[in-house]
Amino acid sequence: MQEEKLYEIFQKYAQSKGIELNKDKEFVFELIKGLLRNEERYGYRSCPCRLASGNKEKDKDIICPCIYSAEDIKEYGRCYCGLYVSTQYNQGKIKETIVPERRKK
Amino acid sequence: MLRRVRLYSLSTCPVCKKVKEFLASNLIEHELIEVDTLESGEQWLAMKELKKINPKETFPTVVVEKAIVGYDEEGLKQILEIKN
């Protein structure tokens, strides 16, 4: 799938959830490239900022949007990788911080 | 002071890319370990090493190792952050 097309899909998804895509479009496209790379090598779009195992069942929690994203957006204004963010985050009202990993090892 | 810098990174991660650019623009010589591109055995070993310093095993992680050779009081104070 083309990057632009995926961007549109993600944007629609974000709107439906009352969130937004990160306003840094270049950063978003880097993430999209990573997601497509993971889809190509693993067969699923796992988070580009986490190491996937290659086992879809084991990685189902980190398939984008990851199961931690809603909680991270609520608490930090953005998901772990920074693809999805809150409106307040895009408006610069939330202090930039490193989102701690919620995934249990 | 001897120093070794290692970057544990994922090839798909844009934040890792920012760290790579930071190191490059500051001319910091480093070893790049692109964990997702390693073969399974090498990947297992890299993750084992990463876990020692960062139990969360997250990316990017920059590891800076410094070595003091001999009795270098100033160097030891500096590296161990001993004041006075």
Output the keywords.
heterodimer; A: 105 residues; Ferredoxin Thioredoxin Reductase; two-stranded antiparallel ribbon; B: alpha+beta; Glutaredoxin; 3 helices; 3 strands
Per CATH, the superfamily of chain B is: Glutaredoxin
Query: How is the quaternary structure best described?
Result: heterodimer
For the biggest β-sheet of chain A, the strand order reads 1-2
Q: What is the domain total for the residues of chain A?
A: 1
- What do the pLDDT scores of chain A average to? 96
Give the topology, please.
The complex is a heterodimer of chains A (105) and B (84).
Chain A: H1 3-17, E1 20-21, H2 25-42, H3 69-76, E2 84-85, H4 87-90
Antiparallel strand pairs in A: 1-2
Chain B: E1 2-9, H1 14-25, E2 31-34, H2 40-53, E3 61-67, H3 73-79
Parallel strand pairs in B: 1-2
Antiparallel strand pairs in B: 1-3
3D architecture notes:
The complex is a heterodimer of chains A (105) and B (84). With 105 residues, chain A is mainly alpha-helical. Chain A has one domain: Ferredoxin thioredoxin reductase catalytic beta subunit (Ferredoxin Thioredoxin Reductase, Alpha-Beta Complex), CATH 3.90.460. Chain A is 43% helix and 4% strand. Chain A has four helices and two strands, in the order αβααβα. In chain A, strands 1-2 form a two-stranded antiparallel ribbon. The termini of chain A are far apart. The model of chain B has no long low-confidence stretch (mean pLDDT 96). Chain B has one domain: Glutaredoxin, CATH 3.40.30.10. Chain B has three helices and three strands. In chain B, α1 links the parallel β1 and β2. With 84 residues, chain B is α+β, with helices and mostly antiparallel strands. Helix content of chain B is 39%, strand content 23%. At the A-B interface, α2 of A face α1 of B.
